[in-house]
Structure formats: structure tokens, C-alpha cells
Specification:
single chain, 242 residues, alpha+beta, NADH Oxidase, 7 helices, binds flavin mononucleotide, Nitroreductase, oxidoreductase, FMN, flavoprotein, oxidoreductase activity
Length: 242
């Protein structure tokens, strides 16, 4: 595609900044107690609210947790689920219990993200895949995450909880559904790599092994089919798209 003034809205450095923010965003578990500026908070929530959403339904709701008793209750709920997860993991349970899975004690701000009530009214793009509401809210959280990183703030997404317990704690409508506890704040330093990679829990999968051409990805070349010998040296980006 040729580059026109209309398609080339961003300066080279701005484009690089976007990729840098994406690469340097980390799921954070360690925070300092320095407060977060209110204007920054407003910008982050506004960024979240600009996310795409199925049928423009904007299913996200945010609760800022200011009450220390409620924060303590959240911590308890996560701890209970951490124990249950360890049991479910069987032989990896001990290794799991050594991981730090939340930063609720230290972070300056805690937000709950929930799916709104009344979602069944929204059929556009969800008739066969109702979970697209969750996908939309995840886009909002990712916006917030990236904007926070750009502002020099860390964020951690905690999903280790029983949704009903959190819904009850914040008196949510019957069909609302909490999907995230977000720990947000200044950090001592950003991790260079995902903490789970540092801890040896998992590694990033090779991108090429996740991309197929006209078929499900195969593990080695990203090309599939019984006879890929002709194209064994090719990767998905070498093949012209019609
Ligand atoms: C939907 C979702 C839920 C997550 N829930 C948790 C969680 O409960 N506890 C935790 O320690 N990390 C959680 N994470 C963070 C992941 O562990 C983290 O994103 C992954 O290890 C990659 O690290 P990175 O985000 O720094 O690239 C969650 C991430 C996502 C996207």
C-alpha cells in the first residue's frame, strides 16, 4: 500500500514509542507506596474507555477501591483462590506457591473491572459468541495497561478469585461479572522479562510456530500441508497474499 499523508499520521519516533510501550509493558507485582496523580488516573481510565467493543456495547465497569477493609477482603479472596489453584495444579503446586501472584498490599491504587449487567440485550457480534463482551473488556484493560506503562506506572492483572465473592463484596447487580482486580501504581523498576519467565514457569512461544498459512499452524515452519518440502525454507511472510 502506498503511503499517503492520510495514512502516515504518526512520526517515526511516535511509531517506535508505541512498539516500545508494547514491548516494555509488564505484569507487575512489586510497587512503591507513592500515590498516583489524579490527572494521570483520569487519563488512564479515559484510555480504557476508548477501547473497541463488540457492537459498541462498552461492557466495562470500573470500581476504584479506596476502602482498606474492602482491599483486605480482596486480598483474602485472592489468597483463598491461590490455595485452591495450587491444589488443582498437583505436582506443580509447590512451585506455583512460590510465585508472587498479586501486589495488593503495596500498590497505590486498586480497581475492579466488571462486565456490566443487562448484557443479553446486546446481540450484535455476540449471537454465536457471547464471550465477545469479555474480549471487549479485555481490550479496555490492555489500553489501560499500555497507557499506564507509558506514564511510567506498573499494573498487574489479578484474575485469581471467585467472581461471586467479589460481586457480593461490591454489591454488583445479579448479572454483572467481575473479571479483573487491577493493582496499579509506581514501581521500584519494571521487570525486563515476564516475571513467570524469570521464575522459570513458562517461556514465550516462538511466534512463527503460532502462524499458519491457509491452515492451522504447524510447529516448525508455520506452513502446513503434507508436502511442505518445497517451501521448507519459506516462512509465512515470504508467501504473497492475493
Ligand atoms: C487475563 C489475564 C489474567 C491474569 N491473571 C493473573 C493472576 O491472577 N495472577 C498473576 O500473577 N498474573 C496474572 N496475569 C499476568 C500474566 O501472568 C502475565 O501477563 C504473563 O505472565 C506475561 O507477563 P507480562 O504481562 O509481563 O508480559 C494475568 C494476565 C492476563 C492477561
Amino acid at each position: 500500500m502506498s503511503e499517503t499523508p492520510h495514512t502516515r499520521d504518526f512520526a517515526r519516533e511516535e511509531i517506535q514509542a508505541i512498539y516500545r510501550v508494547i514491548a516494555e509493558r509488564r505484569d507487575m507485582r512489586h510497587f512503591t507506596d507513592r500515590p498516583v496523580d489524579t490527572d494521570v488516573l483520569k487519563r488512564l481510565l479515559a484510555a480504557a474507555h476508548q477501547a473497541p467493543s463488540v457492537g459498541y456495547m462498552q461492557p466495562w465497569r470500573f470500581i476504584r477501591v479506596c476502602d482498606s477493609t474492602k482491599r483486605a477482603a480482596l486480598k483474602q479472596a485472592v489468597e483463598a483462590e491461590r490455595q485452591r489453584t495450587a491444589e488443582a495444579l498437583g505436582e506443580r503446586g509447590d512451585a506455583f506457591m512460590r510465585l508472587k501472584v498479586e501486589g495488593l498490599d503495596q500498590c497505590a491504587e486498586v480497581f475492579i473491572v466488571a462486565l456490566a449487567d443487562g448484557r443479553e440485550r446486546h446481540v450484535f457480534g455476540r449471537r454465536t459468541m457471547p464471550e465477545m463482551d469479555l474480549a471487549s473488556a479485555a481490550c479496555a484493560i490492555q489500553n489501560l495497561w499500555l497507557a499506564a506503562r507509558a506514564e511510567g506506572l506498573g499494573m498487574g492483572w489479578v484474575s485469581m478469585f471467585e467472581p461471586a465473592a467479589i460481586a457480593h463484596l461490591f454489591d454488583m447487580p445479579r448479572d454483572a461479572r467481575p473479571i479483573a482486580i487491577l493493582c496499579l501504581g509506581h514501581v521500584p523498576a519494571f521487570y525486563d522479562r515476564p516475571m513467570l519467565a524469570e521464575a522459570g514457569w513458562a517461556d514465550r512461544v516462538a511466534l512463527d510456530s503460532l502462524i499458519g498459512v491457509d491452515a492451522w499452524p504447524t510447529d516448525h515452519s508455520g506452513l502446513s500441508g503434507p508436502d511442505s518440502s518445497d517451501t521448507a525454507e519459506q516462512s509465512w511472510w515470504d508467501i504473497p497474499s492475493k
